[in-house]
Amino acid sequence: MSDQLEAYCHAPIGIFDSGVGGTTVLRAIRQILPHEPLLYLADQARCPYGPRPTHELRRFSMENTQWLLQRGAKMIVVACNTASAAALRWLRNQLPDVTFVGMVPALKPAALSSQSGVVGVLATPATMQGALLQEVREQWAQGVTLVERVGDGLVPLIEAGRWDDEVTRALLWRYLEPMVEAGADRVVLGCTHYPYLIPLIEALAPTLQIIDAAPAVAQQVARLINDQGIANRDAGATVCYATSGAPATFAALLTALQAPPGDVIGVEEPCPTDRKNEISSRWSFIHHNVRER
Fold first, then answer.
1. More exposed terminus of the chain, fewer Cβ within 10 Å: N or C?
2. What residues form DSSP beta bridges with 122?
3. 191 in catalytic set
4. Catalytic status, residue 9
5. pTM, entire model
6. Catalytic member of 9, 47, 191, 271
7. Angle ∠(189,152,213) on CA atoms, nearest 5
8. Sheet strand arrangement including 186-190
9. Catalytic annotation, pick one of 9, 47, 80, 271
10. At what angle do helices 214-227 and 23-32 cross, to 10 degrees?
11. H or E segment and range at residue 48
12. What is the pLDDT of residues 229-282, one digit of tens each?
C-alpha cells in the first residue's frame, strides 16, 4: 500500500447534522466499523434545520461538508434527513469527487413488512415535502395507507435533553395518536433525532413497530469503505465531536445520551455568504473547551 493510500485509509469519516440527532447514525457506524476514526459536526447554532428553506439548507450543508473535507474526511455522511432531502443530490452534483451517504426515510421496509397495511411517518417539514420521500412513496407505498405527521417542536426538546418529560410526552402523543387510531403497525422515523424518543414511543404506542434508517445507512457506509479500499484496519480509532453551539453543553448531552466517547471542540458559526466568496474559508477552527469524555 502506498503512503498516500495508507494516509487516506486513516482519514476520518465525516458526519454532520444540525445537532445531536446524527449521533444515532454515528453510533450505528461505530458498531460495525469500530476501527474507523469519526469526525462529527453538529451545527447547533443553526438548529433546527426542519423549518428552513431549501436554499439555506443547501448552503449550510455545503459549509458543513467543506469544514469536514478541510479536516481530511474521506467520506461525508449527511446524518440529517432534512439536509439529505434538500441537499444530498445537489451536493453530489457540486462535488462529484466526494463520496456522500445520506438519509432516506425507511418507508420501503415499513411498507413491505406492515401487516395492517397502515404505516405512520414522523418527519420534519423539509423531509416530508422532499423529493426523496416522495420517490419512496411512489415506488414502495402504493399499497399501504400512510399516516404522516410533521414532528414540530420535537427536535428542540431533544436538543434540550427533554426526551422524557410531560411536555415531550404530550407533544409526541399528539403525533402518534392518529397513527394508532388509524391502525398503523409501523412508524418510520424520518429524523435522526427521533430515535432518542424510542423508549417514549414504545411506552406511548406499544403497537407501533419502530423503523429507523440508521443501521441501513451504517451498512452502506461500510460497503462503500470496503469497495473503495479505504477501510482503516488499525485499532484505536478515535471519535471527535465539533459543535457550533456550546461545547460544554453538547458534551454533557452526549454523555447523557451515552454516545460513543470522544473529544468535544467548538467551531465558530460561518459568515454569511455575501461576506466571503470562498465557502472553504467560512469555518474557523477553535479548540474551545476541549474535554476528554
1. N
2. 149, 189
3. yes
4. no
5. 0.89
6. 191
7. 15
8. 145-150, 118-123, 186-190, 209-211
9. 80
10. 50
11. none
12. 999 988 778 999 999 999 999 999 999 999 999 999 999 865 444 333 333 333
